[in-house]
Write a structure and sequence with these properties.
209 residues, alpha+beta, 9% strand
């Protein structure tokens, strides 16, 4: 399955909630959810059909997959890994997604969206513990330092993103030094640190069918 290249606001409308896929626009009145909170398509404003259990499970999985910008194979692979680990599978899945490098770069405020964060990583603007990395799916660990490379610190997009992120806030499991454009993973994210209204148990039930 190829990566989605269409208008991302349609995805938010399809899920009926803000997925924060378009950076600053998602916090303004121009947000599609603010202007027209209805599924896309000519029948979007019509009467909604009753959704069965499978439909609820599928929508929850699609919602989470789209939030983090993963392809179906990537998402399923992450679920398989979460299922192998000890603990509650749903919570472990969310933790593994949060610890992806592209998500951490976004959460630290170096980018206004996860898509932009993925691009920053791929273009080599990010270092981990002083070493340049270009793999967005790399999983960070407790104690790692994530830094914007010296030659990229004057990048206008990064500067604007950091300024914008001051109002958005930084998750408690991360530490940020905004002037040095450096962040650190203090601990693994807890379930209460993930603010999206996700019912991860529905995703576990979907893959357990």
């Amino acid at each position: 399955m190829a990566r989605y290249r269409g208008p991302v606001c349609r995805l938010c409308r399809r899920e009926g909630m803000k997925l924060f896929l378009k950076g600053e626009r998602c916090y303004k009145e121009k947000c599609a959810i603010e202007r027209r909170n209805a599924p896309p398509g000519q029948h979007g404003m019509g009467r909604r059909r009753k959704v069965r259990a499978y439909g609820l499970q599928l929508r929850e999985k699609q919602k989470l997959r789209r939030i983090y910008g993963l392809l179906e194979g990537q998402f399923h692979g992450t679920f398989v890994e979460a299922n192998r680990r000890k603990g509650i599978t749903g919570e472990t899945l969310l933790q593994l997604l949060e610890l992806r490098l592209d998500n951490v770069v976004y959460s630290l405020g170096f980018a206004t969206s996860r898509t932009q964060a993925r691009q920053l990583v791929r273009h080599g603007h990010i270092e981990i513990d002083g070493r340049r990395v270009d793999i967005p799916s790399m999983r960070v660990r407790q104690g790692m330092e994530i830094t914007v490379r010296e030659g990229s610190r004057k990048n206008a997009h990064i500067s604007e993103a950091v300024e914008f992120a001051q109002g958005r806030g930084i998750p408690p499991w991360l530490e940020l030094a905004p002037t040095a454009l450096k962040g650190k993973v203090l601990e693994n994210p807890a379930r209460e640190d993930i603010r999206f209204p996700i019912q991860e148990q529905l995703i576990v039930e979907l893959y357990s069918r």
